């Protein structure tokens, strides 16, 4: 006589609302295997039903893979791209100089961007003075040292 796997008992299932309510591919396989093991030998599962269920499993697996790929894509898009700020190389940027003791802006400083650095998801600009400036502190960008001569 066939025995039922104890993990399928309701008392062994997680409490409602404690986990994701959608079934994953592992859950689908468990249900399919339980169905195959417990089928009536005089009336086995029809080929069409089995193929249909395997197709559903294949679709579920593809959707799961697509979901994971989309999550990875969104993760990479949430970081400020290095290429976006590379156009600032050679440009003059203005940024506030803040007094560390008072936290008050003392004046605006300028510097020419020599490189763009991305570390731990944070993008900063390296200026010709050696200062590394986070991109969110830039107040303006202009061409280097070119004053309008009125020509």
From TrEMBL:
Family: Belongs to the FlgD family.
GO term, biological process aspect, one: bacterial-type flagellum organization
InterPro entries xref list: FlgD (IPR005648), FLgD_Tudor (IPR025963)
Species of origin: Halobacillus alkaliphilus
Superkingdom of origin organism: Bacteria
Residue ranges of domain FlgD Tudor-like in the record: 83-139
Protein name as catalogued: Flagellar basal-body rod modification protein FlgD
Keywords assigned by UniProt, alphabetized: Bacterial flagellum biogenesis, Cell projection, Cilium, Flagellum
């Amino acid at each position: 006589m066939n025995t039922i796997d104890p993990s399928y008992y309701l008392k062994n299932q997680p409490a409602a609302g404690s986990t994701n309510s959608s079934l994953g591919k592992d859950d689908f396989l468990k249900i399919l295997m339980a169905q195959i093991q417990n089928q009536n030998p005089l009336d086995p599962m029809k080929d069409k039903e089995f193929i249909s269920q395997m197709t559903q499993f294949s679709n579920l697996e593809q959707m799961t893979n697509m979901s994971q790929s989309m999550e990875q894509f969104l993760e990479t898009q949430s970081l400020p791209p290095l290429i976006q700020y590379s156009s600032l190389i050679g440009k003059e940027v203005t940024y506030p100089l803040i007094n560390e003791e008072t936290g008050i802006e003392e004046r605006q400083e300028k510097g020419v961007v020599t490189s763009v650095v991305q570390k731990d998801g944070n993008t900063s600009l390296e200026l010709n003075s050696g200062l590394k400036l986070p991109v969110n502190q830039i107040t303006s960008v202009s061409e280097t040292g070119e004053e309008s001569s009125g020509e």
